[in-house]
Amino acid sequence: QSALTQPPSVSGSPGQSVTISCTGTSSDVGSYNRVSWYQQPPGTAPKLMIYEVTNRPSGVPDRFSGSKSGNTASLTISGLQAEDEAYYYCSSYSSSTLVVFGGGTKVTVL
Amino acid sequence: EVQLVESGGGLVQPGGSLRLSCAASGFIFSSYWMTWVRQAPGKGLEWVASIKKDGSEKYYVDSVKGRFTISRDNAENSLYLQMNNLRAEDTAVYYCARDRDFARDYWGQGTLVTVSS
Q1: pLDDT tens string B11-65
Q2: How far is residue B78 from each of residues B17, B46, B71, B72, measured CA to CA in Å?
Q3: In angstroms, what CA-CA distances link A56 with A65, B49, B81?
Q4: Residue A46 contacts B, CB cutoff 8 Å
Q5: CA angle (B79, B83, B86) in 5-degree steps
Q6: Which end of chain A lies in a sparser environment, N or C, as judged by fewer CB atoms within 10 Å?
Q7: B-chain residues within 8 Å CB-CB of A55?
Q8: CA B75 to CA A88: how far, in whole Å?
């Protein structure tokens, strides 16, 4: 059961935009609009940021946006703020395992 | 307010057993799928198991099949994870989470399971 592939780290200055990619296969990301993204500051529980590829739960700033093309989903953080520094994980429904997570990406605000 | 509170973690020897509980409140528990997710120290999130609203369907990651059992008591608003034949690689913080729209929209604070002799 392979995890989705994310870059280990991305960084940006305050106010800039960063994009995190999440690459899967035709068994998960490529075939279903069931990709979600989670934010996890160190020592805390994950928090849902995006569901069903593009939807934001109530209370999540509109600086966070999601998209998908083929087998790759992406999370973009626009207008980066210091409080956005955290680990981010993607997840997808999978026809083979039900749920699969990415390995996580550390976002650093320079 | 939705709340999920895990309990039951601790130190256990390899081959031992542990039962995790997750007490849910603030929503109609029986209307949602529920999931366990774990995170080994310094590592990423790993899906462990999910259970349908009425408990009639259960799904597991391959590494725990035959050793872990997910269950729920809708009358008690509680989710469980029975873990048998524990291994060192099962050491992790275990989170319970509510499922909605194919995502985990609420998470507990987690409970730490340490498998060591």
Answers
A1: 999 999 999 999 999 999 999 999 999 999 999 999 999 999 999 999 999 999 9
A2: 19, 21, 9, 6
A3: 8, 25, 30
A4: yes
A5: 155
A6: C
A7: 101
A8: 35
Which tens digit of pLDDT belongs to each residue from A41-78? 999 999 999 999 999 999 999 999 999 999 999 999 99
Angstrom distance (rounded) from CA B102 to CA A52:
7
Q: What is the CA radius of gyration of chain A?
A: 13
Cβ separation of B47 and A48 shorter than 8 Å?
no
Could you say which of B37, B102, B109 has the minimum Cβ distance to residue A93? B102
Model confidence at A2: pLDDT above 70? no
pLDDT tens, A73-110? Answer: 999 999 999 999 999 999 999 998 899 999 999 999 99
Give the 3-state secondary structure of B59-90: EECHHHCCCEEEEEECCCCEEEEEECCCCHHH
Q: What is the mean pLDDT of residues A31-35?
A: 95
Instruction: Give how far B26 is from chain A: nearest CA, Å.
Output: 17
Cross-strand pairs, B82: B19, B69
Nearest CB partner across the interface for A51, out of B44, B59, B101 = B101
Dist CA B84 CA A11 (whole Å): 41
Contact B103 A45 (CB under 8 A): no
Spatial CA neighbour of B12 closest among B86, B66, B69: B86
